[in-house]
TrEMBL record:
<keyword id="KW-0677">Repeat</keyword>
<dbReference type="InterPro" id="IPR036322">
    <property type="entry name" value="WD40_repeat_dom_sf"/>
</dbReference>
<dbReference type="InterPro" id="IPR001680">
    <property type="entry name" value="WD40_rpt"/>
</dbReference>
<dbReference type="Pfam" id="PF00400">
    <property type="entry name" value="WD40"/>
</dbReference>
<protein>
    <submittedName>
        <fullName>Proteasomal ATPase associated factor 1</fullName>
    </submittedName>
</protein>
<feature type="repeat" description="WD">
    <location>
        <begin position="130"/>
        <end position="171"/>
    </location>
</feature>
<dbReference type="GO" id="GO:0000502">
    <property type="term" value="C:proteasome complex"/>
</dbReference>
<comment type="similarity">
    <text>Belongs to the WD repeat PAAF1/RPN14 family.</text>
</comment>
<dbReference type="InterPro" id="IPR051179">
    <property type="entry name" value="WD_repeat_multifunction"/>
</dbReference>
<keyword id="KW-0853">WD repeat</keyword>
<dbReference type="InterPro" id="IPR015943">
    <property type="entry name" value="WD40/YVTN_repeat-like_dom_sf"/>
</dbReference>
<feature type="repeat" description="WD">
    <location>
        <begin position="172"/>
        <end position="204"/>
    </location>
</feature>
<keyword id="KW-0647">Proteasome</keyword>
<feature type="repeat" description="WD">
    <location>
        <begin position="88"/>
        <end position="129"/>
    </location>
</feature>
Length: 414
């Protein structure tokens, strides 16, 4: 486990003041933690602060919204990012999930205050209140069209909502436990869900019907991901002819991140098991890097990179801390990960050849939401396609936290 840098949660605000100071630390397993501070000495004509670090730390590149800090003795550096927009009035309690529409204009989010809302991503103005779930809503996401929302709740129901008038067009029932994650197949004729009841299901949106139970794991399924498998992978053959209502399932594999320390692959059309990999702790999340490689993150901080053609042993296991890996998404030739790091959200961008860039958003929450990754996934996807629409610029990320003062905030940083 490598050393980790941490910084005062409100460092950006503290260093805006004359002679302002913010603490930082470097923690390495088995060694005493090194503590230090950053002090503002002045301000350039461009408005960029002049920052000095205490002994043992070095300040690198500084902008109005970021600072690069390193600890040479431990050979570690981290770029800390400050939000440039905060939405504090969307929810009153902790936010559990977030997504941004494909065009970048709308956001949808859920909260433990019992609400699910659609809002303007430019200014946080609430546009729609989506009401109909009983108990908390765990997950939400836009369909590719950006006009429809899919949600899953603790009431074991999936719902499809109209963005235009907030009406619930479809309700899926069949799970026996709270729904923990969803995925959309291609353009959205079919959708997927996983649940605390240990099953993953395929649904037909047009008929409001379950097309099949893809897996029954006997343990909660915390996260799922669907992708096109490499042609060399044997996905198995369906035991019976697939329904004509199945659209886009051929040649795809479904990943299941399970609570019982297992990561499972299932042929989406065949329903046949493809592989079963045992990790070090409960798997929280998973994502595809390509048709060949995929990632999965565990509760004890491990990130496994595996090859779908041979899952007997991981290509690499990455661990920066023992904090839970909450979410993962592909980014260029590498990936981005978030961890609940003792009151900080951090992530790494690591390419398959081993080069790495570490960034962090410092917060002090009583509860950290993993919902930010949905927005990050959507925004990075847009950036990779070269889109620059409205205010959504390349490589912006949304982060959601529930701060200790009881205010739920959406922090937008880039």
């Amino acid at each position: 486990m490598a050393a980790a840098l941490r910084i005062q949660s409100d460092w950006s605000r503290a260093l805006r003041r004359d002679e302002g100071e913010a603490w930082l630390s470097c923690r390495s397993p088995g060694k005493p933690t090194l503590y230090g501070s950053l002090t503002r000495r002045g301000l350039s004509t461009e408005g960029v602060p002049d920052i000095a670090a205490s002994e043992g730390f070095v300040v690198g590149e500084i902008t109005k919204k970021s600072i690069l800090v390193s600890c040479p003795h431990e050979n570690v550096s981290t770029k800390f990012l400050a939000p440039f927009t905060t939405f504090s009035r969307i929810h009153q309690k902790s936010v559990t999930c977030l997504d941004i529409s494909s065009g970048g204009g709308l956001g949808v989010s859920t909260s433990t205050d019992g609400t699910m809302k659609i809002w303007q991503a430019a200014n946080g103005e609430i546009r729609r209140l989506l009401e109909g779930h009983v108990y908390d809503v765990n997950c939400c996401r836009f369909f590719p069209s950006g006009l429809v929302v899919l949600s899953g709740g603790m009431d074991a129901q999936l719902k499809i909502w109209s963005v235009e008038d907030a009406s619930c067009a479809v309700t899926f029932q069949g799970h026996r436990g709270g729904i923990l994650d969803t995925a959309i197949v291609d353009r959205g004729r079919n959708v997927l869900s996983c649940s605390r009841d240990g099953t993953a299901r395929l649904w037909d949106c047009g008929k409001s019907a379950c097309l099949g139970v893809l897996a029954d794991c006997g343990s909660p399924v915390n996260g799922i991901a669907v992708g096109t498998a490499d042609n060399s992978v044997n996905l198995g053959a369906p035991e019976k002819t697939p329904s004509e209502r199945e659209i886009g399932t051929e040649g795809k594999i479904l990943l299941l991140a399970r609570e019982d320390k297992k990561l499972q692959g299932v042929g989406l059309q065949s329903r046949q098991p493809v592989f079963l990999f045992v990790g070090s702790d409960a798997f929280n999340c998973c994502t595809f890097l390509s048709s060949t490689y995929f990632l999965a993150g565990t509760q004890d901080g491990n990130i496994y990179q595996l090859d779908v053609r041979n899952t007997n042993a991981p290509i690499q296991v990455i661990q920066r801390s023992g904090a839970p890996v909450l979410s993962l998404l592909p980014y260029r030739d590498g990936f981005v990960a978030s961890q609940g790091n003792w009151g900080a959200v951090s992530w790494q961008c690591r390419s398959c050849n081993g080069t790495e860039q570490r960034c962090a958003l410092a917060v002090l929450p009583s509860y950290l939401s993993t919902g930010w990754v949905s927005a990050a996934r959507r925004t990075v996807s847009m950036a990779q396609r070269g889109c620059r629409r409205n205010y959504v610029l390349a490589f912006q990320f949304f982060f959601l936290v529930f701060l200790q003062n009881g205010v739920s905030k959406v922090l937008l940083t880039h």
